[in-house]
Each structure stands twice: as C-alpha cells, then as structure tokens.
Specification:
About 40% of the residues lie in helices and about 35% in strands. The chain is α+β, with helices and mostly antiparallel strands.
Length: about 220
C-alpha cells in the first residue's frame, strides 16, 4: 500500500495547476527537502505555538518567545494565537486511519494538523509577504484533514511576520483567518487526487519511496 500525506496531495494539485514542476513533485515524493530561511522561520513559529511556556523569555523587560535563532514579540503572538490556545486543542494531531482507493490500489493518507479542538481543525501558515486567504480554498490539504479527522471545519490562521532589524525581534504585521467546510463530493476529490499522485509515482518508478513497510 502506498503511504502518502496531505501535503503530497496538495503538491500534486499544484503540479497539475502548473505552479510547481515535475522535479519539485518528485523531490516531495522522495522526501528531499532543503530548508529555506522561510521554512526555518515557520518551524520556529510552530514550535512556539505548540508549547509557548517552554519558549517564553524576557528581553529588556518585555516578553518574547525564543526558539533557535528566532525571537518573537510575545504580546502580539498571544493576540494572534490566544483564541486557539483557549480551546486547549490537541496540537500536532495526527491520524493514519484514512485509506482511499486509487487506480493503483489502496493508499493511506497520513494527516497531521497543527491543532484539533473537538471537531474543529486549525492550520497555521506564516510568511514575510502579504497573504491572500482565498488561495487556500482550493487546497487539497484541508480536504484531507476534514475527511481524516471528521472535522466540521478547517481554519487557516495566516500570519504575516516582519523582522525588526534594530532589535532582531519578529513582530506580526498582519493576521487573517479563512474557514472552509466539508462538502458532498469532498471524499471523491481527495481520492481522485490520490489516484493522480499514485499514477505519477508509478510512471516515474518512485514506489520504493512510498510503499509501506511490512510488519516484521
């Protein structure tokens, strides 16, 4: 059985839309990643979200969150993430229960959401650039999450970060949310995208990267 994930489904959609090329999709399938500064920034922000108290510190009497080489303005982070924290969600919620049928056999879709509070799912996205909420409406990621977790809704919290060079602290320039909801043919859309991905894997001889290992 192929072992895929929600991010790979979204990469497949982006490939089909001409946003990324086949080499990018092959690298994603093979698990080849080169961390960019933007990815490092996002990882640091996610680490703070997952366990803020561990990262809380003070700089010149002001509260900050510190992770690795990144320091964030704690007051602004609290304003942007506080409503999610108040729900006491399960962070990094993961499930491997979603299995869909493709033209190349069954495929397991591994889903790991940033937060799950009851049947409400949350996903954080960070960028130094202005973010357009509508671009996430077409994502296969949230569709897989809604299906895998049985979620009533999936909310993207979009956070635009800005570095204050004089004190080397990251502040929040803007924050937006977009909430998307399950719809009748969602399961079919997820299965069709998984089937397209399975076909791409087969054509390019990439099965060894994604076949589940048999239990010993």
């Amino acid at each position: 059985m192929l072992r895929l994930n929600a991010s790979l489904l979204e990469s497949t959609r982006l490939y089909q839309a001409g946003v990324i090329d086949s080499d990018n999709l092959i690298d994603s399938i093979a698990g080849v990643t080169v961390e960019t500064p933007q990815m490092a920034l996002g990882s640091a922000f996610h680490a703070v979200f997952e366990d803020p108290l561990v990262h809380l510190d003070y700089l010149d009497g002001a509260g900050v969150y510190h992770h690795g080489d990144f320091t964030f303005d704690a007051e602004l982070v609290d304003k942007v993430l506080g409503d999610i924290w108040d729900l006491e969600p399960v962070v990094e919620a993961k499930t491997e229960d979603l299995v869909v049928q493709t033209d190349h056999g069954p495929a397991r879709i591994v889903c790991q959401a940033d937060a799950l509070a009851g049947l409400d799912c949350w996903e954080l996205k960070t960028s130094e650039k202005s973010m357009v909420p509508e671009r996430y409406m077409g994502s296969m990621q949230w569709r897989a999450y809604a299906l895998a977790f049985g979620a009533n809704q999936v909310t993207y919290r979009l956070v635009q970060l800005k570095r204050l060079k004089d004190c080397d602290v990251w502040t929040i320039q803007d924050a937006q949310s977009i909430t998307v909801f399950p719809y009748p043919r969602m399961a079919q859309d997820v299965a069709e995208t998984a089937s397209d991905l399975a076909r791409f894997i087969s054509i390019n001889g990439l099965e060894d990267y994604r076949l589940e290992k048999e239990a010993a």
